[in-house]
Design a protein that fits this description.
heterodimer, A: Actin, Chain A, domain 4, Substrate Binding Domain Of DNAk, Chain A, domain 1, 4 domains, B: Helix Hairpins, 2 domains, elongated
Chain lengths: 616, 205
């Protein structure tokens, strides 16, 4: 379009991947020409468990190997860290009762966890998972990956979103967009191709619950309303079963295992297995073997359903609220989409079907659909996908503190983002040079019932009589759902400086420091791996050539050809210990080329010998 | 903002969203009606408004500017925020009217008792007593409150009917007196709405 824009063609285009950073599992996907595809990890599995472990050697391991470590070294392993993203120490008291997080302390605003002998913030732990996904994508795509779309629960607040973005930066990824998980799922389903209509996305994952209602029209996915609970998920069901198991064991064995990390993790695995099996079977046995003793418990689906009924009920209230916010009745919902592993539970499906009076879509794997949608959004941003556009909303109202501890709403929830609001502030006493603005998120009227986002200090106001200063403050929620604030002194007609103190989460400086800390690894990661792979290849050819040089065929070669081989061999050995993988590969090619004649001769000899030995 | 020159090619920008010479996105205008390409009218066709909203979203959304110059990215964010803010205001008949009132220099915000229907003022005292009784656990006032709610809703519909007529009147004549009346009805409407909210809150508790 514009003259400024230069079309680099495909070669210049950066790849953007889509990442589902889940509570239980994480995935990375990309747009493969026309359809999104999930990229499997090193072990070939598409799901990378969101588990991080620190080995005795001080090495970080992520995913399935870390899942093993969760049993053997629970004190050196962290899972479900998403529950702690963007939260303060006071928020997580409940979580700490049920999850073996080891809080290492809380600075002014950010929670820290200990992992073995090291200490990390939740975004740093998440960054380890992201870095693993980045590596998986780079290995599969054969190119460096630096840009990503990451999904977040629709109901995530500003601090939780910011923490996710920080995690991306620490992992060496430019987060081009945060996309809400249910909206991503709607994109993945491509329901717009079928017809225009209204879709409800019910997303019940490992740790969070989201509901979104969208209108699809002409390729536009307009979110009408969203709601949810950032602390409601399959984990809660596991905890119900875990509690029963621990109580049973205590009365049967006369032993309280709840303080024993290893035993609790083993039992947790056992109840999760039972939960999964109950989705297809009418009854299962929870099996737990520990320290030579056995615990067995029959669990029928009927008993299980009775147990989880209240948990599922907790998802239905936000659904009803969401319909009312969208101004719709259940009959007006055309399609329902199920997302998240917990929607495999038959009672969940039945409850959703009853509420929306529509048979839910389950065609796409509920564990993968969010990542696939993230890849579609990545395609929209990179220009590969052109016929779709997502218009999302902010899940929570934005307000500012006014007199008497009240919150005055300046942007209501379910406003399409980007959205902005402007407020004019003034001074209360003569000569006042700064004004403090307290920004909150939430639906309640009192400051104490809302979530504090940040305090903005408008500084350097020209001294004047009270009420004369006029500072216009613009609150802008961007397409990621993150708040940006700017201010202007109307009388002086100049930009007003603002100092931001986030209530929860890392300051920019802290994030920068973490990036610096990890930058050597993050940046060299790709290069190093390429080099390692090139060296493995070089090892193979060097060994083969070494062996071939003992062969008769080598001595049958022309002097010149032998010289070529020796030279190529030496040159490869020279670059082998350098740091340039491209150079290593070039020399491998050169050696391959130089030994072509030798290989041919050897092949002929082999064939001849084989023929000799064959009876005709 | 005043008509300036395109930031990119420096030819006259003439207040268009896109420069007609080089097609780069310009710093957006902030008047919602102009932004949507609409005349300043109190009556709007919501289906047409939605069509314009979708069309402009496709043109302006930040998703389509990730690979552009920083300046265009900023303008795209700015323009889309204005678009979304504008859509939120213009599709709501009450907010739309408040927007026009502010634009025409009417001071907004303050509750003026002279706009409140006199018959309502008499009733409010009685209503407050009933509300208090219900909150303190006396369920016998429930039917009285339900009846009041019904009455308020009827009054609100009457206000809406009068507003509809006034909207058309202003659209045709653009006379300040019509807006003056619109403001009165809007204040009445807000007052009644607050009463309904309070009654509903008490009934739901």
């Amino acid at each position: 379009m514009g003259t400024f824009q230069i079309d680099f063609g495909n070669a210049g285009k950066q790849r953007v991947v889509g990442i589902d950073l889940g509570t239980t599992n994480s995935l990375v996907a990309y747009m493969d020409v026309t359809a999104p595809k999930v990229i499997p990890g090193e072990d070939g599995e598409p799901l990378v468990p969101s588990v991080v472990s620190l080995t005795g050697d001080g090495e970080i391991i992520v995913g399935n190997p870390a899942l093993q470590a969760l049993i053997t070294h629970p004190d050196r392993t962290i899972y479900s860290v998403k529950r702690l993203m963007g939260r303060g120490i006071d928020d997580v008291a409940e979580e700490l009762k049920l999850f073996p997080f080891r809080v290492a302390g809380s600075g002014e605003s950010v929670l820290k966890l200990s992992l073995g002998e090291k200490i990390f913030s939740p975004p740093e732990i998440s960054a380890f998972i992201l870095r693993q996904l980045k590596r998986n994508a780079e290995a599969a795509l054969g190119e460096e990956v630096r840009q990503a779309v990451i999904t977040v629960p629709a109901y995530f607040n500003d601090a939780q979103r910011q923490a996710t973005k920080d995690a991306g930066r620490i992992a060496g990824l430019e987060v081009l967009r945060l996309v809400n998980e249910p909206t991503a799922a709607a994109l993945a389903y491509g329901l717009d191709k079928r017809r225009d209509g209204v879709v409800a996305v019910y997303d019940f994952g490992g740790g969070t619950f989201d509901i979104s209602i969208l209108r699809l029209q002409e390729g536009i996915f307009e979110v009408l309303a969203t709601g949810g609970d950032t602390h409601l998920g399959g984990d809660d069901i596991d905890n119900l079963l875990l509690k029963i198991g621990l109580e049973d064991i205590e009365s049967e064995w006369k032993q309280d295992l709840s303080g024993n990390g290893e035993a609790v993790q083993t039992l947790r695995r056992a109840v999760i297995r039972a939960k999964h099996e109950l989705s297809t079977m009418p009854a299962v046995t929870i099996q737990f073997d520990y320290a030579g003793r056995q615990y067995r418990r029959e669990l029928t689906r009927a008993v299980f359903e009775q147990l989880i009924q209240p948990t599922i009920e907790r998802t239905l209230a936000p659904c009803r609220q969401c319909m009312s916010d969208a101004g719709l009745e259940p009959e007006q919902i055309d399609e329902v989409v199920l997302v998240g592993g917990s929607t495999r539970i038959p009672l969940v499906r039945a409850s959703v079907e009853r509420l929306f009076r529509a048979k839910p879509h389950t065609e796409l794997n509920p564990d993968q659909v969010v990542a696939l949608g993230a890849a579609v959004q990545a395609g929209i941003l990179s220009g590969e996908v052109q016929d779709k556009l997502l218009l999302d909303v902010t899940p929570l109202s934005l307000g500012i503190e006014t007199m008497g501890g009240l919150v005055s709403k300046i942007l209501h929830r379910n406003s399409t983002i980007p959205a902005s609001a402007t407020e004019v502030f003034t001074t209360a006493v003569e000569g006042q040079t700064n004004v403090l603005i307290h920004v909150l998120q939430g639906e309640r009227e009192m400051v104490k019932d809302c979530r504090s986002l940040a305090r903005f200090d408008l500084k350097g106001i020209d001294p004047a009589p009270a009420g004369l200063a006029r500072i216009e403050v613009r609150f802008l929620i961007d397409a990621n759902g993150i708040l940006n604030v700017s201010a202007r002194d109307i009388r002086a007609g100049k930009e007003q400086s603002i100092e931001v103190k986030p209530s929860y989460g890392l300051t920019d400086d802290q994030v920068e420091a973490m990036i610096l800390e990890s930058i050597d690894k993050a940046q060299d990661d790709f290069q190093e791996r390429q080099l390692r792979e090139a060296r493995v290849e070089a090892d193979a050819i060097l060994a083969a050539v070494e062996k071939a040089r003992q062969h008769d065929a080598y001595f049958d070669l022309e002097e010149d050809d032998r010289g070529l081989i020796t030279r190529a061999l030496n040159e490869l050995l020279v670059v082998y210990h350098g740091s340039d993988h491209m150079l290593v590969r070039a020399k491998i090619d050169q050696l391959n080329h130089a030994t072509m004649k030798l290989a041919e001769t050897m092949m002929n000899t082999a064939v001849n010998q084989a023929l000799k030995g064959t009876k005709i | 903002m005043q008509a300036g020159r395109c930031w990119q090619c420096e030819k006259p920008a003439e207040n268009n969203l896109f420069c007609k010479f080089c097609n780069s996105l310009q710093r957006p205008l902030t008047d919602y009606y102009t932004f949507f390409g609409l005349e300043h009218k109190l009556n709007l066709d919501n289906a047409d408004l939605q069509r314009r909203f979708y069309q402009l979203s496709k043109l302006l959304h930040p998703d389509h500017y990730t690979r552009r110059a920083q300046r265009e990215r900023d303008y795209s964010l700015e323009a889309t925020a204005i678009l979304n803010d504008g859509y939120r205001i213009l599709r709501d008949p009450v907010k739309r009217a408040e927007y026009i009132l502010a634009e025409q220099g009417f001071e907004g915000g303050e509750q003026r008792t002279k706009d409140v229907p006199p018959e309502l003022l008499e009733e409010v005292f009685e209503l407050n007593m009933a509300l208090e009784e219900l909150v303190s656990g006396d369920a016998s006032v429930r039917p009285q409150l339900e009846e009041a709610r019904g009455r308020f809703r009827r009054m609100q519909r009457e206000v809406d009917d009068r507003l509809g007529a006034l909207y058309t009147q202003w659209d045709e004549t653009k006379q300040r007196e019509s807006l003056e009346e619109v403001r009165g009805e809007l204040n009445r409407r807000k007052y009644i709405e607050n009463l309904i909210t309070e009654v509903e809150k008490a009934l739901a508790a």
